[in-house]
Amino acid sequence: MSKEYKGIVKAWEATVRKSQGFTKKRSHTIFGTMMSATVAHADDEDPSSTTTATTTTQQQKEVLLPNGDFYTGQWLEGLPHGSGKYLWTDGCMYCGEWQKGKTTGKGRFTWPSGASYEGDFKVGYMDGIGTYTGSSGDTYKGCWVMNLKHGQGIQNYATGDCYDGEWKKGLQDGHGKYQWKSGTNYVGEWNGGIMNGNGVMNFEDGNRYDGNWEDGFPKGNGTYRWADGGYYVGVWSKGEAKERSGTYYTAGSQEAEEGSEWDQQELFLGESLSACKISVTEVASIYPSQKACYVPGSDAGSFKQMKAHSYDGNSSAADGRLSNYSMSSWEGSDSGVGGGFDGEGEESYYGYTNVNENLNKLRLQPAKKQGETISKGHKNYELMLNLQLGIRHSVGRPGPPLTSLDLKSSAFDPREKVWTKFPPEGSKYTVPHQSCEFRWKDYCPLVFRTLRKLFNVDPADYMISICGDDALRELSSPGKSGSFFYLTNDDRYMIKTMKKAEVKVLIRMLPAYYNHVRQFENTLVTKYFGLHCVKLTGPVRFIIMGNLFNTEYAIHRRFDLKGSSHGRITCKPESEIDASTTLKDLDLNYLFRLQRVWYQEFCRQVDRDCELLEQERVMDYSLLVGIHFRESFHRADIPTPPRTSGARTPTGLRTPTGTRTPTRNGDVDSDVVGGGAPRLSKAEIDKLVLDPSRWASIKLGMNMPARVEKTVRRDGETQLVGEPTGELYQVILTFGIIDILQDYDISKKLEHAYKSMQYDPTSISAVDPKQYSRRFRDFIFKVFVEES
Prior knowledge:
Layout: H1 3-25, E1 59-64, E2 70-76, E3 79-87, E4 93-99, E5 102-110, E6 116-122, E7 125-133, E8 139-145, E9 148-156, E10 162-168, E11 171-179, E12 185-191, E13 194-202, E14 208-214, E15 217-225, E16 231-236, E17 245-249, H2 265-268, H3 271-274, E18 294-296, E19 303-305, E20 372-373, H4 381-396, E21 417-422, E22 438-443, H5 445-454, H6 459-467, E23 473-474, E24 485-487, E25 493-498, H7 500-519, E26 528-535, E27 539-546, E28 557-561, E29 582-583, E30 590-594, H8 596-615, E31 618-619, E32 622-629, E33 672-673, E34 677-678, H9 682-690, E35 704-712, E36 723-738, E37 742-743, H10 746-756, H11 769-783, E38 784-786
Parallel strand pairs: 28-29, 30-38
Antiparallel strand pairs: 1-2, 2-3, 3-4, 4-5, 5-6, 6-7, 7-8, 8-9, 9-10, 10-11, 11-12, 12-13, 13-14, 14-15, 15-16, 16-17, 18-19, 20-23, 21-22, 22-26, 23-24, 24-25, 25-27, 26-27, 28-32, 30-35, 31-37, 32-36, 33-34, 35-36
Protein name: Phosphatidylinositol 4-phosphate 5-kinase
Catalytic activity: a 1,2-diacyl-sn-glycero-3-phospho-(1D-myo-inositol 4-phosphate) + ATP = a 1,2-diacyl-sn-glycero-3-phospho-(1D-myo-inositol-4,5-bisphosphate) + ADP + H(+)
Pfam families: MORN, PIP5K
């Protein structure tokens, strides 16, 4: 414990002893004693006094709280505001900047154990750039988000090991270098705190492994080199021997040595690899966001303590995270994890006062169920049955186990197709069915099978979603391209009919697409799961892809953004626009504000994805954005304190108390209100968003908490991006890049030539892929901005 810390504790204890007699006499007051002439009582209501806590002038105060906590520093309107020092009775201390009673800005937090954090805070959380020094000697210096290491950072362990690289949600994730004290090091990809992906391990004895890793061990293609120059090239696996193969080459030789064999188990079971354990980081017993100060309540002359959440105690230090806490102590709409929310719901990690009051100006209608169920008698009923039979056959067909994600070039060959005939009476390979005879074709089956594994799609769940008892739903009208869209009943997958030209584009770009989605986990491009063809009288080609809006949050507004202006407006009166209406560039009246770490990753990924599409000579793609306004859930059954801010329930968001909304299958579900929107209280929504243990559902482009700012166009349609108005809304965003199969072919070139004679060439969608990519990125980076 430092001398400075001991001195403060002694002074604080002396102050407590002095004040004990006075506090007994004045137990009804908020602060028990005067520390000096500058100390004021919070219950002093004399309007003529210049030292009352209710004055709007910032003051310097020393305050002893009823529970024994002590604060000294700047004070404004009954709250710590400015620079100040807060000492809790358990010995924790914060010294730094405050904003409206919350630790926000630069500061230093110390624990009684001697551990400390110095750096940026946001609403109680360690958030920004900061350094954590553990009591055991661990240190981490780098980026933080909500108490979690997230971004670039360097971790020095008490064991002498060191990691320098990317972090995600408190764990090593991305590219990084781990240096063991022994001299061994690993440089490569990480996933969830484990070596996973391409990487190189240099052993202390001079040997080296360069190749693919999975779950912390070599898996797939790799090369092991000895210090003397010999090397072994093969397919690696810690599992069964039949999954392993390879060839040994002696030093200086280009040919395999006859009669010589080397067993991979020598590496897996040897001391060199087994000694390379990832050190664990120290886990704090309590976090700054859990330490709440006493703040004035909404009732005059009374105080309330912000609810602080207790430490779980069951969290293992082995996960390497610095933020494992219980979310079990929520009450009403109060949240004390980092003081993120007060009892009136006016503040949150993502924004400050009056953000949600602006929702009163919105008229958001409940989302309607999309699509028409394809039942018997529907014109496409036979096609649906054939599609389901074909998918069940393709996915359920036995095949060799996928031991590696590395595929041979032959798997991507356009001639790699499998035709299957489905007679009504069945055959050796197909089951009997009640539909007419048809033929079924799988394109590049091994590639799409591997893609489903890469996207963590379980084969059984995939078949149940598409081929289960529930029918598909056909969207009401075909898209501009003439394609028809179908949704599975659980909304997980979308099926789109395709033109032959689109199939050719996808097969052509399939190798690059596969490598791209494999390399970049956070890619925003559409996820494809299967490419098939049903042939009755004529061929019907279709693609199965992920439904971008398969989320627990109701989508209230959706925008299709390209960065062009000609024809990019929805010709509908305001009264007819609802949650299912897809709005366009000139309809956009928001700026999307992302937290710094998310914004940086967003920009990087958009650049990567656009480079892929530009390289493959495709254009006319767009960013589809869905917005869920976080105040738009049903709150009638949630007891909340009276608001003093004057905020009202947004018009059009509340359903009548006691009503229940039918679910997709027609039944009434008490957990679904407002046409499918989750029936969640404010506390439950905030709990879902802010609890790091539930961050698995929050990814780039998926369930992302953010803020949007209302904009207005001063120059009408000539202004593509409106001017900000200051109206802010707390939202959940879902977005991705769609329609990536339009080649810049002769028809698009003719369209460009024709429209360029009539309109501004920069305003039309049909432009060269390079120009399209540049314009698309310029526009997206104007409407998505970093949160200030």
